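Re: that chain you flagged

S.,

Sorry for the slow reply, it's been a week of failed gels. I finally had a moment to sit down with the sequence you sent. For the record, here it is as I used it:
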Amino acid sequence: MQEGDATISVYDEQGDCIGEKIRGEVDKKQDILKSVHILLFNRKEELFVVRVAGHDSLYPKMIGCSAAGLVRSDETVEEAAIRTLQRELRLGINGELGIDGNQHGLQYHGEQFVSMNDVKRFMNVFSIVFDGDAGVVDLNPDDAEEGCWVSINKLDKKSCMPTLLEALRMLKQNRK
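Prediction finished late last night. Pasting the structure tokens below so you have them in one place:
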């Protein structure tokens, strides 16, 4: 979960910043926000997915991206992605991801304005290959109940959050 006192920028549908709110005051359904969605793959090209915590107000208990979060007003989307990986999956900057200066391994797949079930976001999608110890990921229980490695072809799409499906679509489109 995001810290309640972080400042989050609010946008209009053209992508212009129209204000800022403290994280605890953000209306996830009404405010248009920038978000990061990270797809974590292993060397077998399996995707790490999480079952979202039951207290998530938008998509409780659904399957989501490896990690996802809002972009704070004082950070770039890349900084938000790194912070989100550290917070939700407890992956270290110089540890499993080998982040060193600009050589962190994150691949950016673009930003897309999406409107899903009355939720509007500027989604920024990243992917990264996990090179850690036997594929073990240490989930933050505040953000996810469980996680597992799956083949993308075997995902039950009915159980997936729309943001995961959109992130996979953007990844596929970017790889063409």
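What I noticed first: Strands lie at 7-11, 17-22, 33-41, 47-52, 63-64, 67-70, 107-116, 119-129, 144-150.

Talk soon,
D.
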